[in-house]
Amino acid sequence: MIQHVSENRNISFLSGDAQNRTSDNLTTPSFANSTFVRPAAFFINGFSNIPHAKYYYMFLCLVYAVTVLGNSFIMSTIYLARRLHTAKYVAVFHLAFSDICGSSVLIPKLIDMFLFDNQYISYESCLANMFFVLHFMNLQSFTLLILAYDRVIAICFPLKYHAIITKSSISCILCASWICSFILFTALVGLVNRLSFCRSNVVNSYYCEHGPVISLSCNNNSINYYLAYLFFGLLICAPLALITISYLCIAAALLKIAHGADRMKAMKTCTSHLALVAIFYLPILSVNVKSISTSIDPNARIINNSLTQIIPPMLNPIIYTLKTEEVLQSIKELYKRNKVATNAKRTNVMRNK
What we know:
Strand order of the largest sheet: 4-3-5
CATH class: Mainly Alpha
Membrane topology: Multi-pass membrane protein
GO molecular function, one term: G protein-coupled receptor activity
Number of domains: 1
Largest sheet: 3 strands, mixed
CATH topology: Rhopdopsin 7-helix transmembrane proteins
Transmembrane segments: 55-80, 87-107, 127-149, 170-192, 226-254, 266-285
Mean pLDDT: 84
Radius of gyration: 24 Å
Pfam families: 7tm_4
Subcellular location: Cell membrane
């Protein structure tokens, strides 16, 4: 189960103890020559010493079903309702799409591994899983930033809103985010291929998470960690800082609104948006910052990260669409249109009889 690939270049290997949990794939060979080691498969450990952990995975399965149904409904509504064919809802549609894709690359595989005891994942599939989870999480982060930008322009510069926020401009920003994310995470995941895994193949996480995987390497992985820290700053900390600044500008603008009712309505909307942003960013931020200085219990990290990755996609349809008047009005119009079409069809059938 371990592949040895000889290379001409020298690779320094770090000494270290094997993990407590062993498997048939575990090996700690001695290297006289430069050898590049890749496991044929990784073992995804999941929770350790937690009774009835399968109930938690069943909960994730339920949340996934709600996420897919809710976001599919929102995407269908935006597609069918002409009044929602605006720049803002291009971003909302993209957020729903990213939520479905991000949940789909994570939860079904997680269910297969832990509910059906299929915890081995091939080396290539592991890297693919790592890439797509990171890619779609990053797209969610970028889209939340775009929606915050949309709100800033709408509230702080209402007269210039339609000139600045157009469907073409939002589409260009989203395309740029896809290209940027693809290039960055191709580089990040591609660098995993330069590592040798000669200590253990047991990943202490619930998927092929970047940090736990590269920590298993026994040659120099400093470049991987430096790049991970850089991406963490650029793709998590920077968007969060910009979103925070955006809502501070919004708060300052709202204080100038004369009518109390309008101010309260806008504040309620912004508060719900900020709550969702906090649920998405703060757990990721806290875990990564804490891991720099001290070790984190794997079980706590799994619960923290998994909830961060599944709860916001489930709540996004409610916060960004179902609580807005124009979406609710569009749903009512679509329902009436469908009802009229159904009645007309029944009438035609009765006449033909």
